[in-house]
Amino acid sequence: MAGAREGTARSTAGRTAGEHGAPDVVVVGAGQGGVETVAALRARGFPGRITLVAEETALPYQRPPLSKGYLLGTVDRAGLELRPDDFFSALDIDLVRGDRAAGIDRDRGAVELDSGRELPYGRLVLATGSRPRRLPVAGADLEGVRTLRSLAGADELRGRLTDGRELDVVVVGAGFLGLELAATARTLGHRVTVVEASARVMSRVVTEAVSEHVAAEHRGQGVRVLTRREVVALHGGTGPEDPGHVRVVELDGGERLAADLVVVGIGALPNVELATAAGLLVGDGVIVDPRLRTSDPDVYAVGDCARFPSPWTGRHVRLESVQNASDQARRVAADILGETGPYTALPWFWSEQYGLRLQMAGLTAGHDEAVVAGDPDAGRFSVFCFRAGRLTGVESVNRPADHGISRRLLASGTDLTPRDVARPGFDLRAHAQQRSAPPAQQAPAAQHAERPVHA
Amino acid sequence: MAKITYKHPNGTETIVDVAAPNTVMRGAKTNNIDGIEAQCGGSAQCGTCHVYVDEANTLPLPEMHESEDEVLYGTACPRRDNSRLSCQLPVSEEIDGLVVHLPEAQS
C-alpha cells in the first residue's frame, strides 16, 4: 500500500479536485464491481468524495445466489446484500439509489443523472454491467418468458416457482445460468427441459468431460436435456384465459414442448450505451488498456462491461464473473490512489448445480490437450488443459483443493506437464507440496500495535 | 454480539463488535476490513476469506466441514494448523473475544 497517500495528492489537471486535493470519484453501477471499487478506495484510505450511482432502488446485492439459493429460499434478502445499509454512510460514500446515469460530459468532467442531478468527477468508473440477451424469435415477449439478472426479476421468478403448482419449465440455453436455473427449478419439483443450440452443455466454457458429467447429472435428476436443438417460436395459450401467456415452445424440426414458464439464459450483452454516447472506444464492451482505463484516461471501466487485454490469452477479452469484477475494482481503486499497474489477476469461475460444485481456474479456450485426473465415476475429478504443453486452465468437479491449488500454480507459473497429470495416482496436492518452498512463516502473535477501530 | 479482533499482517489490529447472525467473514466485510475478500460470498468456494485463528485461542469453534478442509489446501497464503475460512465461523456470544490473524494475501 506504499504510495497510496502520495497518489491521492496527484494533480488532476483541470479536472474537479475536491477537498484533500483528491479527485472526486463517481462510480456508475452498484453491482459487484461498483461496490468493490468504492469499498476498496476507502479501505485504502482514499480521502476524497465518492459517489456511487445505483439504478435499482434495492441495496446493492450479490447476483450469483439469485439463480440458486435465493430462489430455493436458503439465502434470504439480507444474505444477498453486498454490504449492510449503514455501510455506505459510515464510510462517507454517497450512494444514489433509483437514479440512472443519462450522459457523461467529458469536457466538463460531469455525469448527468436522469433526475437532473449532476455529479462532477475527477475520475469516473464505469461498472455498468451487462444485460441478458433476448431470444430472437416470435413470441419472445409473451408473458411467462423471463430472463434473470435483477433482484426484482428473481422475486418474480421465485413467485412463479414457489406458488405450489407443478409447472412445465423450459430453460433455453445451457450455460452456467441456464443450468443453475434448471437445477433450481427441478429441485423445487417442476418438470424441466433444457434446450441448447450447440452440441453439448456449457460448450463455450468447459471441456467435453465436464459437459458430459454435468449433463448426465441433470438427466439423472430427471431433467430433459436437448442439445443441437433451436427454439424457433414461442406460442401463447389458445384458451380464453391466457392468450398472452406462453404455453408452447416450438423447436426446429417441429417438436412442441409444453411450457408454463420459459427462462432464457443465452448470454449477456455489455451495457455500453453510456460509453458510446460519450464517444469512448467501444466494441463488445468498453475497450480499456492494461490499467483498465478507457480511451479517456480519466474514465475507467470494470466488470462485465469492460473489454480488457488479458495476459492469460494475449488478447482482449470480456469476462462476466464476480472474480473479474472484484479484482478489477480493487486494481482501479489502487490506480486512482496512484499505485498504477496492469490488471493481471487470474480468472476463475464457479457454478453450483444440485450438490455439484464446479470450479474453473484460468482460461481453457484454445487448449490442445486435456487430461482428466481423479475419479469421474465417483463425481470427483479435474480436467487439466494445456496449450503447446503449458497448463492454461483447470476445471474441477467436487475437487475444491485442486481448484485452489491450480489457481496458485497458474498464477505463479508451473511446469506441470500432461504426462505428470496422466501418471497413475497423480495427486495435485502432493505435487504442489513437493514443488513449493517451505512456507514463509508469519509470526502472528508477536505484534501488538494497538489501534482499535470501530467503524 | 461478539467482539472480534482482526490482526493485520503489518502489526495493526481492528476490533469490532459483530452481531449474530453473522460470520467472522461478514464482520470484516461490514466493517470494510481490508484483507478479507470473500469473493464467493460465503459459500466456501473460493478460499479468499482465509484467516489464522490466534494460537492461544480457547473459544469453541465449529468443526471443520470437508469442503472447508479441501478449500484450505488452495489458499493464497500457506495453510497452517490454525487456518480457517472465516465464512464458516458463525458469530455468537460463545466466541466473544475471538482473535484472528489476516494473511498477507487472499488471491
What does this structure look like?
- The complex is a heterodimer of chains A (455) and B (107).
- Chain A is α/β, with parallel strands linked by helices.
- Helix content of chain A is 24%, strand content 26%.
- A five-stranded parallel β-sheet of chain A has the order 3-2-1-7-19. Chain A has a five-stranded parallel β-sheet with strand order 9-16-10-11-12. Chain A has a five-stranded antiparallel β-sheet with strand order 22-23-26-25-24, with helices on both faces.
- The longest helix of chain A has 15 residues, at 322-336.
- Chain A is globular, with a radius of gyration of 24 Å.
- Chain B is α+β, with helices and mostly antiparallel strands.
- Chain B has a single domain, classed as Ubiquitin-like (UB roll), CATH 3.10.20.30.
- In chain B, a hairpin with a 5-residue loop joins strand 1 (2-7) and strand 2 (13-18).
- Chain B is globular, with a radius of gyration of 12 Å.
- The A-B interface holds A 39-40, 42-44, 62, 64-65, 83-84, 87, 91, 322-323, 326-327, 345, 348, 350, 352, 357, 359, 399-408, 429, 436, 439-440, 442, 444-445, 447-455 and B 7, 9, 11-17, 29-34, 37, 39-41, 43-47, 52, 54-56, 67, 70-76, 78, 80, 101, 103-104, 107.
